[in-house]
Amino acid sequence: MPWKSCRSIGIAVAAVAAVALAALALPYSAAADQASEIEAIRKATEKYKDVNVALANGYISPPPVECVSAAHEGLPPEWGAMGIHYINPAILKITTQEPRLDGMSTHTDFLKPAILIYEPQANGSLVLVGVENLVFQKAWKEAGNSAPPSFAGSTWNTMADDPATPDDEAHAFEPHFDLHVWAFRDNPTGALTPFNPNVTCEHYKAD
Fold first, then answer.
1. How many other C-beta atoms are found inside a 10 Å radius of the C-beta of residue 72?
2. Domain contains 29
3. Three-class secondary structure assignment of 15-40
4. What are the tens digits of pLDDT across the range 75-109?
5. Which residues contact 178 (CB under 8 A, 6 or more apart)?
6. Contact (CB, 8 A) for 74 and 188
7. What kind and span of H or E run contains 89?
8. How many domains does the chain fold into?
9. Is 68 within a domain?
10. pTM, whole model, 2 decimals?
11. How far is residue 45's CA from residue 158's CA, in Å, rounded to a whole number?
């Protein structure tokens, strides 16, 4: 499957908006609810700390394998990185790969995420740092939804390619909504922002 990186205004806008929202302190009750939900996600997905368990459960890192960092995307390096994405085609209900990845996914359950995010280590191993879900806009709207999905009070990011720009804002996917949850790596800019300053692609080695 193709997997183009998000060197684009789209992800930059989403990241800036997410950081700005994170800067607004959540009310205590909302913050506690978010922390509780993330703890539940952590417990449900910690088995995927072993990438072999992820592979056995249908997760793959589609070629070309990339470790997504802000610097690589032409964004401020201090934003950090995302890491390497392992997607589950069955959960995403992929229907076609050309000209773009498309599917029927309306899956929003972070206890069974569609995407796992790993940070490469110096010794060649992978460390699970977060999870992500992605739903296709067309399928989401056909299911009767008029607004993007939300999680713990946060609206998911809207991603769609802009043909007027040289980069691919939608990662070679059809228009979709997505959201990262940094369940396994503290993120000073917010647990739900796209990039994490505490994640690095420093040790990534392309195949």
1. 17
2. no
3. HHHHHHHHHCCCCHHHHHHHHHHHHH
4. 899 999 999 999 999 999 999 988 899 999 999 99
5. 132, 133, 134, 135, 156, 157, 159
6. no
7. helix 89-92
8. 1
9. yes
10. 0.85
11. 25
